[in-house]
Design a protein that fits this description.
Blueprint lengths: L7 H8 L5 H24 L3 H13 L8 E2 L4 E2 L7 H11 L3 H9 L7 H6 L14 H10 L15 H9 L3 H14 L4
Antiparallel strand pairs: 1-2
Helix pairs in contact: 2-3, 2-7, 3-5, 3-7, 4-5, 8-9
Length: about 190
């Protein structure tokens, strides 16, 4: 990775105008996810290069929302919301950021199996989609704690609330949540 910091705000502003409704939802969410991910990265002793990548990728992880249909957030695209992960990958690959693109694609809850995608009829490729690297997983973990819902943008869910949120998706996601919790959260 280049020693210079990526100007991620330039990329964000290229796709999301700062005075837009989308930006009003996007920025608080990604800033909160980034802050949580970086707190964990410091606690885990990750090096400066890893932390820089986490900062950049977390700030860009939801960029694909610009192409989906979510009018309550000012997103006027035609695609279903879940496809923001694929669109984010496409956008970041086009920006020459292949590692960041993988974070965008793989930050879907605690991941999805091919069987889950097919059985739920999700408009995604029939393949397993999981974070693979430590950085991808850490950002996905941090993302579980923040909503883009009005009134919830700046509120961090407790571990119990995040776990309850994930429990809606079934036993496999819940078991993985517990593995990630042991890896990323301080013992209480």
């Amino acid at each position: 990775m280049n020693a210079q910091a990526l100007p991620y705000f330039e990329i964000i502003h290229k796709y999301i105008p700062p005075n837009s409704l989308t930006y009003a939802y996007y920025l608080p969410h990604v800033a909160a996810v980034t802050a949580k991910a970086l707190r964990i990265a410091y606690r885990l002793g990750l090096d400066a290069t890893q932390r820089r990548f986490i900062e950049e990728a977390a700030m860009l992880h939801d960029i694909g929302i610009v192409r989906v249909h979510a009018p309550d957030m000012g997103c006027t695209g035609e695609l279903p919301y879940i496809t923001h992960i694929l669109e984010g990958r496409r956008i970041l690959e086009a920006e020459g950021l292949p590692r960041h693109a993988l974070v965008a694609e793989r930050h879907v809850g605690v991941g999805l199996t091919q069987e889950e995608i097919v059985s739920q009829g999700l408009p995604l490729p029939a393949a397993d989609i999981f974070p693979e690297s430590l950085e991808e997983t850490l950002i996905s973990w941090a993302d579980l704690f923040f909503s883009k819902s009005p009134g919830e943008l700046w509120r961090e869910r407790s571990v119990a609330e995040a776990r309850q949120h994930v429990a809606r998706w079934g036993e496999r996601p819940l078991a993985l949540f517990d593995v990630w919790r042991a890896r990323f959260e301080e013992a209480t």
